[in-house]
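=== Structural record ===
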Amino acid sequence: MKKLLLIIIIISLGADFSSCQRELNEKTSAQNSLYSSKCTVVIDAGHGGKDNGTQGVDGTPEKDINLSISLALYDYFRVCGINSVLIRNGDYEFYKNVEKRTRSDLYNRLDFINTFENGVLISIHQNHFEEESQWGTQIWYSANNPESKIMADSILSTVKEYLQPDNKRNNKVSGDNYYLLYKAIKPSIMVECGFMSNKKENERLKQSEYQKDMAFCIMSSICNIV
């Protein structure tokens, strides 16, 4: 009931908690005792730094949209009393200067996720396809934990109901082409929020309000099952 009231407050006020909540992220270990949820949601903003990911039809880098949605998602989780941490909260990759860049980035992300005993991974990405007509959110989930599919289905159902009623896509189990999901033991999903190769959807994905709407759909879905 408390979570529901908090959600209603967020909607009614339309508050932007980004700056203060990012400061909280730097003190996560000290603050976790203030939150009562039984899991820690690890939010992975895909790519970063030299790794732009894919790009929109107008050249917008995927990494920027991933980060914006991830920051909003982090804010919503923390306000609703759910432990959450960000793998990155800026434009950088997750590796040390002495390490091999791409290989180390993925390994370090997986190691970070595994430090949380009751961790849940939500990796935020954007899609791209040769045919511009393709659009819509789709979620990949790890085959290593049955809760992964439950999370994925809950999120896609919410996105379809409130953001994309015409979305006909189905979620898919991940193979070894998605390293984090393939190696994950904990409940893990990758949310492909939309297709940056689709002009109309790319424009929506760049809008701050739509990014917050997407983050809110993800957060409210997880609140229902954690």
